[in-house]
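Final report, Chapter 2: Outcomes

The project's central promise was a pipeline that accepts a single protein chain and returns its three-dimensional structure in a standardized token representation, suitable for archiving and comparison. That pipeline is now operational. To close this chapter, we reproduce one record exactly as it appears in the project archive, with the input sequence first and the structure output second.
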Amino acid sequence: MKTSTRFNLLLVLLFPFLGDAQTNQIHILHANQTYSNTKQYPGAMVLNGDVQVEHQGALLTCKKALFYQSDNKLYAYGDVLINQADTLTQKSNHLQYDGDSQKALSWGKVIVQDKEIILTTDTLRFDRKTQILKYDCFGTIVNLENTLTSQVGEYFANDKKLSAQQNVKVINPSMILKTGHMDYYTSTGRTYLYGASTITNDRTKMYTEKGIYDTRLSLGYLLKNSTIYYDSNEIEGDSLYYHKLSGFASGTGNLIITDTVNKIIVKGEYGEIFRAKDSIVVTRKPVAISTVEKDSMFIHGDTLSITGAEKEKLMKVFHHVKIFKSDLSGKCDSLVTHQGKGITELFTNPILWSGENQITGDSILLLSNPVTNKLDSLKILKNAFVVQKDSIGFNQIKGKNMFGKFINQKLSSLLSKGNGAVVNYARDEKGDLTAIMDVECSNILFKLNDNRIKTIRFLKKPEGKTYPPSKFPEDRKIIKGFIWRGNERPLKKEDIFIHD
């Protein structure tokens, strides 16, 4: 009685394991010929001709197979085909399969196909439990729109995801993507890039070291050390967005836009680029930088835009505009630069400082050589006023309009036309004050050296006189309309970001 009880208990304990073993066992469905050859294939059953094997819902067919029943392993040769419940098929010349682990090693013209992709390689490892396929001897994946190649790949069939590494390339009719490491989702066409990557389409090239690119929508998010190149522009930023179909790009954080033809750099914290409109708009801390003979000019405002074709570009800067260059600085409410013409216009209470000269007027125009960007001349229109500070007063020039010429970036001459007036403190070579001029004349020509007045020529009959310093009337020291604004002058490039 005790022996029978122990035997029944043993059966109860063994039954689950026997059931599992039966479930995991490889089943031979058909073969034209079966035999054993212990000398050549010890421990194996040889299956020849129209071999059909079933395991865990997958059907395997081949020309020849070696079945090791005790190890639950199969070696298949010739036209090997695995059909996994109509969800995935795999072809190869050779296959090794372990029924217990459900892991397969295939080699020789391996082709895997599911509803999303066709994968080809020479050697492939397939884990049926995890539905993960791996290759490390170069593989190609083709789906609806893309062809992907890589040296190493890991395909997650359940997630429709390929993790590809080493010499990765994705090609479709409108794009070539190259990277060292990426995750590619075959059902969406979306790629996740890791490490140095380039994306090229039409006239645009992108570089990033981390990003997301949707190959179907031609849309990218570039997140690390990224640059977009198109036409003559280069766009860099902490985070870049690009949409090919709309021709739109944007950048956030340490944005740098470089116009390589016009040699202008625009920086900021956020900007947008509209390719079809040839338009750039930067709205957070924008600053435009142009270089003339190794000396840079910095222009800042609340909003900066550049629009127009290559030789017709128009730069507009709005509100709290400031300019800084080593020998020229200024401020105004708005500024417009016609780059093709070399004209910059300052509007609404504009002011410039050229050397020691404070220049004001209703509007100011700076004219530069369009090729060299060298400053050539300036126009001060309506209520023109130029002031220099002297140790005991202010040299002042007033006129309806004024026209100046620059030589080597320094103001060399100034013509006052209409309602001209001058107060000038004349000094000798030692710097001693010799006389004070107080004269009105409709047209006056001034010659300057090192930004200081050296000669004055009256082109029409003047009215007024020159006084000895001790005889100069106090009430004549200031010409009507005079305002000294020296405390507003940007003295270094960082000052352009200060709102007065």
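Archive annotation: Confidence is low (pLDDT under 50) at residues 1-21.
This record, like all others produced under the grant, will remain available to the consortium after the project formally closes.
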